[in-house]
Amino acid sequence: xxxxxxxxxxxxxxxxxxxxxxxxxxxxxxxxxxxxxxxxxxxxxxxxxxxxxxxxxxxxxxxxxxxxxxxxxxxxxxxxxxxxxxxxxxxxxxxxxxxxxxxxxxxxxxxxxxxxxxxxxxxxxxxxxxxxxxxxxxxxxxxxxxxxxxxxxxxxxxxxxxxxxxxxxxxxxxxxxxxxxxxxxxxxxxxxxxxxxxxxxxxxxxxxxxxxxxxxxxxxxxxxxxxxxxxxxxxxxxxxxxxxxxxxxxxxxxxxxxxxxxxxxxxxxxxxxxxxxxxxxxxxxxxxxxxxxxxxxxxxxxxxxxxxxxxxxxxxxxxxxxxxxxxxxxxxxxxxxxxxxxxxxxxxxxxxxxxxxxxxxxxxxxxxxxxxxxxxxxxxxxxxxxxxxxxxxxxxxxxxxxxxxxxxxxxxxxxxxxxxxxxxxxxxxxxxxxxxxxxxxxxxxxxxxxxxxxxxxxxxx
Length: 461
What we know:
By secondary structure, the chain is an alpha+beta fold. The protein is built from 14 helices and 16 strands.
């Protein structure tokens, strides 16, 4: 008993106190971010969950989830659509761990009738490098989606077509590949996909998702659409079967956050499974896909992030995990128009990872140096010897003559976090003017008084 108590106390000490709760100011800012996003886009509702310090510190719902739900509740189940792919990938990894398949097995061993099935591996299905044509690239439901479908029918219509590219040579998002992966889970396990996940994932984690085809009717959020800038109208759900293993789940934001916490803690699955899911696949040409097995891998606000979005008929979702920071952001909305889910997830990320004072000072210094260039008067004491060599009188005249007439920029913003390269700190900026953009790429010596090694202004996007 004493040993257990010591372990608990050590765990509490190891967890930074500041990471445990959101302050009242942070919570108020998140409320404002959500309200502003819903108001500006017309999206009816949002349900969010925020993980900090490896636990859920906020779970709230906002707006109108359906005419039958008078007050928005965080217990409402929203379709998470393609975020479900990481669960399908986890099912494959569990079967691999049980010795029942290999990620490098050809899919023809389990599912017949697939073009190139003897050359496509299970790993390529999960990483979107199989070459199978995506059966639903549209952001609307096409006519066939008004009729029920089976996984086999999807495979017969789309996976029997010629491949879009040779397996493993390119990356192209493909819902079709995940339908095949779901069929493999069922074939190998002898269970329906959701039953297998309930037994091996949802039950152990205390999650209570349902098939998104069944999350319709009283008590469930209604999905909405909007044609152009017209009125917001209820959307007609797709017929059963269309999302299957590519996007089969509906759950609360907190349930998805519980899965995110398992990812952070390296719980439930072996650590190597989480790492394998989060390792970007590299193409033969050496280019990273920035996608692993069911998840994307990015850098956000200078923090390593594992993320995925989702789109179901009438719903959009966003899930971002910062495993090293022990944080996660879940945003679910009941509309498939606008970008409220992205606005909210980015806004909450900014609350968790605000731009530091050093970055603000660097942006202000970059703006001052830009103003010097457009005036033709450069303080050379701010520059390294290399930068002074670059800025000849002729170069300064070009900058003055081309930048001066533009006047003051309408905005001067940093493009993401600072990065280290070649012993220097790289910071990039975007300037907007009426009708055009400029980009600035800078390198400076580290430290508050570090001199500028490079300051290049060029046309933007």
